[in-house]
Design brief:
It is a single chain. The protein is of the alpha/beta class. It is built from 16 helices and 24 strands. The chain has a nine-stranded mixed sheet with strand order 8-7-6-9-5-10-11-12-13, sandwiched between helices. A six-stranded mixed sheet has the order 17-18-22-19-20-21, with helices on both faces. A hairpin with a 7-residue loop joins strand 17 and strand 18. Helix 4 crosses helix 10 and helix 15 packs across helix 16. The longest helix has 15 residues. The chain is globular, with a radius of gyration of 24 Å.
């Protein structure tokens, strides 16, 4: 038995019926992991959990437990949760192929494209990612985390196994790798997209950030991973990708992809429009209904995933064409007929720059941008985003993203440091009002880019989570132009 928690429960002759870190989910026979987070301390809910029937409490700190439950002190609660979840749910990660996708940008688009390619080949595909969690195409839940914590993660895998999933494609965040959420996942393939400025509030340096991403590929080399044909899929136009290849070559199967460097899969003859992107790879024509050169990278990664799972190149490329689009990734709001509106998840200066490059060759009017930066997150990128927005736009509406608990004035002040010398912007804190103003301003052929929130359906202000959709807000604003 790997799990110290389950071994302890067996020694105490406890009959376990479930695992959770949410006291509201506790039922008789449950193990309650009392996690201490930034905003909530599970140790404060131990008595409540026992009252609801928890028979075992696990905590990283010593705690007094009411009669009726045993207590297990954990010196590494992330590890103990992963170990317990893996065993409790019957080691589901050993029973079907799992593909992990990591990197700063592209994870979500790759997961959607790979799903399309694999499904076109007749496979049942599940996806765990930033937008939602899907089992064989059925949406199970919106995604509170890009990569679920270990307990819900292995519960979902157990459900996938029961549903006879043929393959799981999952986004793997650097946070999840650091916090051991994917311990025991036993990947069949791991994909590296790129490494750009992001999450430095958590990792502090690029080398730390890369070290976290590298853990996904170190798992491929783990003695515990007995999967056959383990494959690393790597973008070698990225310098960190080339470092990974040097680390992995000769140890696992490596498939490389690129646009600018000789690789196993290299796209050429790229032809872009506002309706999609065409290219050639391995002598075969490819087409995706996504905009921009960066999405060719994503298509190549998805092609490599499909090939790693035994799908023919021609079949995989045909599957890529079946995906109409990705929520919040340069998603065109088609209600705008004489100008263009795109909603994009760009929340770094690099991704914002990419959005501008995507539309640059097709620009016939002005570019109007609506954007902000999230609160309680990396402050170093804020002035860079401010500068990028003003430099590449005819006009910018600086507004709130998800301010969370940080003062709005502080966020705007940080962003404005990069806007010094520019006068082509207005601060409109109300995001709905900012979107309305941008769309009211648009003239024929103009391009409005609403950046930062993408697929998100809420806005976090203070500790309050409010319903909010950039897409629906834009559609309402467009309709109001015709009233």
């Amino acid at each position: 038995m790997i799990s110290r928690v389950l071994a302890f429960a067996a020694e105490k002759k406890l009959h376990l019926t479930g695992l959770t870190f949410n006291s509201a989910e506790v039922a008789p026979g449950y193990v309650f992991f009392a996690l201490k987070g930034v905003h909530h301390d599970g140790n404060k809910f131990i008595a409540d959990a026992v009252e609801k029937g928890a028979v075992l409490i696990v905590s990283a700190q010593e705690a007094t437990v009411p009669d009726g439950a045993a207590f297990f002190h954990s010196d590494d609660i992330d590890r103990d949760m992963a170990d317990a979840a893996y065993e409790f749910y019957g080691c589901p990660s050993d029973h079907f192929p799992i593909i992990g996708v990591t990197g700063t940008k592209g994870k979500t688009s790759i997961s959607y494209l790979a799903e399309a390619a694999l499904r076109h080949a007749g496979k049942q595909v599940s996806v765990l990612g930033t937008v939602n969690y899907r089992i064989n195409g059925r949406v199970m839940a919106d995604a509170p985390n890009t990569t679920p914590l270990a307990l819900p993660l292995f519960k979902l895998l157990h459900q996938m196994q029961s549903a006879k999933t043929d393959a799981l494609v999952m986004e793997v965040s650097s946070h999840s790798l650091e916090q051991q959420r994917v311990k025991h996942m036993h990947f069949d393939a791991a994909v590296f997209t790129n490494l750009q400025r992001d999450h430095l509030d958590f990792h502090h340096t690029f080398e730390n950030y890369f070290a976290a991403k590298k853990k996904l590929f170190e798992e491929l080399l783990s003695a515990d991973n007995h999967k056959p044909n383990k494959t690393a899929i790597i973008n070698i136009d990225d310098e960190y990708g080339r470092r990974l290849v040097d680390m992995l070559r000769g140890k696992v199967r490596v498939i490389t992809y690129a646009l600018d460097t000789p690789a196993d899969y290299r796209a050429t003859d790229i032809r872009e429009s506002l309706h999609g992107t065409e290219f050639t790879v391995s002598g075969l024509p490819g087409k995706i209904n996504l905009l921009g050169k960066h999405n060719v990278y994503n298509a190549l990664a998805a092609l490599c995933i499909a090939v790693s799972q035994g799908v023919a190149e021609k079949t995989a490329l045909a599957g890529l064409q079946t995906l109409p689009g990705v929520p919040g990734r340069m998603e065109r709001i088609t209600e705008a007929t004489d100008f263009f509106v795109f909603v994009d998840f760009a929340y770094t200066d690099e991704s914002l720059q990419r959005a501008y490059k995507t539309v640059e060759n097709f620009k016939q009017g002005r570019v109007i941008t609506v954007f902000g930066c999230g609160g309680d997150r990396d402050r170093t990128k804020r002035p860079l985003m401010g500068h990028t927005a003003c430099q590449n736009s005819d006009f910018v509406f600086l507004t709130n993203d998800n301010p969370r608990t940080e003062p709005q004035a502080q966020i705007f002040a940080d962003i404005q440091k990069g806007m010094e010398g520019f006068s082509n912007y207005e601060i409109e804190p109300d995001r709905r009002a900012a979107i309305n103003k941008a769309i009211a301003m648009a003239r024929p052929h103009d391009i409005v880019i609403i950046a930062g929130k993408g697929h998100e359906q809420t806005q976090k202000i203070g500790h309050t989570v409010l319903p909010f959709s950039d897409q629906e807000t834009a559609r309402e604003a467009i309709r109001s132009r015709h009233v």
